[in-house]
Amino acid sequence: MGKTHKIAILAGDGIGPEVVREGLRVLDAVEERFGFATERVEYPFGTEYWLKTGEIFPDAAFAEVQEMDAVLLGAIGDPRAPVGLIERGIIGRLRWDLDMYVNLRPIKLYDARFCPLKDKGPEDVDMVIVRENTEDAYVHPPVFHDQGTPDEVAEQPMRYTRKGTERVIRYAFELARTRPRRQLTLIDKANAVRAQDLYTRVFAEVGEEYPDVRTDHAYIDAACMWMVKNPEWFDVAVTTNLFGDIITDLGAMIQGGMGVAASGNLNPEGLSLFEPIHGSMPKAAGKNTANPVATINAVAMMLDHLGEKEAAAAIDCAVAELLRSDRVRGLKAGLHATDEWGSMVLEQMAAAPAA
Ligand code: IPM
Ligand code: MG
């Protein structure tokens, strides 16, 4: 018998519970096949819980989660709560208080038919965005001066620390080194946001230690253009929190949509959290139409992180084969039912020769 991993499950709002359910079906299957176990603790937090109890993330539960080996999250967000309250109170608190400083977002096109870009195929769209996850415009509360008056001023600083910048850039260089192309692009807006000169300097300094990694630079506006025009130029890219948030939605689109894009919020020295990058789609909740492949991919990323490499690879292979096959009509929500997706991935895994 292999290891037992303790996993906190936060299915959250909207379509979160149904996509997580399919992710857990796949987890069940690989546990059995690869001989490891998970001890899962499910937490009910999200908008519904807040409406009922007034609590967002009770401290006792937050402390308990910190003792786990990983967190799997579905989605958070619901128009019945004030904008951002629950998102910041759950995802934000986990990311920031637990110093999950890398938001790793792979962008991989499985089949040319899912790509909205003309004449681009899987060989052109295969990159990883390393998004800084603890600083920037996310962490300081906004200040509103003279609120509601004609003279109102609203401000929320973009703040970067050398330590925060250096650790994420170093992570990105290490990652670039593990990939065949060994290329790392820095994406910033240092020409307008001069505070990002810190990124420019730290990238150059750390880069000296990685002569084997080819470096490149693009301003965020140009990077958006290049990702659409020449996505093949990107291998690994590192960027700030806010730009990383934005460009990874663009990235999700060129890989076939939010239905497949997964992410890891990593604290390489501590607890890490895995989630689809899509939101909670409240209107689709409970309809069994959401695509759970992103969550299934997040489960694979989680297993890879936990050292269950074979299980992670088995899920990756099954998803890749399935998405290339003609069984799949498309990735958009509703083309296959949520539970049908789970079943298709399971069948595909069962069809692969035993490892
Ligand atoms: C994401 C989301 C979050 C973010 C929201 C829900 C606060 O868009 O994980 O990409 O901005 O980071
Ligand atoms: Mg986002």
Explain what the structure shows.
The protein has 355 residues and is an alpha/beta fold. It is built from eleven helices and twelve strands. The strands form two sheets. The protein has a ten-stranded mixed beta sheet with strand order 2-1-3-12-11-4-5-10-8-9, sandwiched between helices. Strand 8, helix 6 and strand 9 form a beta-alpha-beta unit. The longest helix has 19 residues, at 16-34. The protein binds 3-isopropylmalic acid (IPM) and magnesium ion. Residues 245, 249 line the site of magnesium ion (MG).
Please outline what is shown here.
The protein is of the alpha/beta class and 355 residues long. It has 2 domains: 1-101 and 260-355, Isopropylmalate Dehydrogenase, CATH 3.40.718.10; 116-255, Isopropylmalate Dehydrogenase (3-Layer(aba) Sandwich), CATH 3.40.718.10.
